[in-house]
Amino acid sequence: xxxxxxxxxxxxxxxxxxxxxxxxxxxxxxxxxxxxxxxxxxxxxxxxxxxxxxxxxxxxxxxxxxx
Length: 67
Description:
With 67 residues, the protein is α+β, with helices and mostly antiparallel strands. It is 22% helix and 60% strand.
């Protein structure tokens, strides 16, 4: 039987929410093995002078703990 752990991370992108998710998972997977999935908990934007400057996501990422 496997055991999973969940970590909460935040990621940003100047392009889109989807890119922020992709960048966050990509970076997280560099330091943690066995990433299985993620749940996007929150989405935000940073606005300056009426324009979106940055997309931010907060995610809960699940990974399997090695035996």
